[in-house]
């Protein structure tokens, strides 16, 4: 599924004969009945991203439900169970393009039991679109989604104060909700919050500016999505390259060829750069970089390339090639924040698999350190099992050293998964906090 999303991203960012578009990945999040499906449907409809036959089918289904006009929520609630229950229960990815930018939208559920799906959708997002019902304001699920977005390193948050038509487009209601959420986000370390008053049902301030909010002088939702900064400057980050595959063609023309294929996770690499191979710690130099269309002088995130090195170093899938002057320390101990995604709890003593980049190692949960209290937004000491949708901090002892970066600094090489060592199912998504070398 990940590969499918990457291919879709490539198609979006390179239209036929057009210059490449900037790409923004963003995730929606909101409590139940905040109007999220309607908002996503409105966004797709008003940007003319819906095919005529799809819209006609939605209009027919809306008429059968007794709805006056097209129920735009039906554009996004694609599963039969979702349509029947009127709720979103799975992550659905929507793709659309404007003249300015291309978008991948992760439409995530609002029910508390599907918080894990929100974590999945936000894990690659640069912006979180958090909905709040203007009648109810900030609720516990709003706080949960804000906390998850902050932990996942989502840099930008757009607060959509929806259903403003049901409170008479009252500026005081909007201001109170905005101020409460901005204070909440600041507590979580999120500084970039833009609040927008809107009505998804009627289209106010979604794509077109509303005449019913003369007191609001900020952007519409689409204007903000088109303007928010995207991407990282690879030159500002240290080089990281998880090895996916070792290439040894063993041909007469290239009898000694050995390349290491993968995708640059962070930074820039150039021919002649000194690098270190982790976890072994062997140092060497980049001799050549091979791209899809031939040799390159440099490569940068997120390009997929093959590296050749000057020395014959023992490297296999799962190893990490990094900048020799700024590399993480490979350690058998790892501490991190996790969000539990499975019905199986996470408890001290549990044996699991840890997946970090292209590397998989056996691990044991040494301790549960704390759990996030969603009322106070404070991490309280905790020594019990973490259960489904809990967010907490744990320590792990690994069977083999892993070179994890601090997640707050480098998102891709600071992320990890905990996997059931018997069934292979994903137990938790993790964000490395400390990678330290300690020996018993």
From TrEMBL:
Citing just one GO molecular function, the answer is:
nucleotidyltransferase activity
UniProt-listed Gene3D superfamilies:
P-loop containing nucleotide triphosphate hydrolases, Translation factors
Against InterPro entries, the record matches this protein to: CysN_GTP-bd (IPR041757), CysN_II (IPR044138), CysN_NoDQ_III (IPR044139), G_TR_CS (IPR031157), GTP-eEF1A_C (IPR054696), P-loop_NTPase (IPR027417), SO4_adenylTrfase_lsu (IPR011779), T_Tr_GTP-bd_dom (IPR000795)
The EC number(s) attached to this protein equal 2.7.7.4
Domain annotation Tr-type G: ranges: 21-235
Keyword annotations for this protein? ATP-binding, GTP-binding, Nucleotide-binding, Nucleotidyltransferase, Transferase
Q: Which PANTHER family match?
A: TRANSLATION FACTOR
Q: What is this protein called?
A: sulfate adenylyltransferase
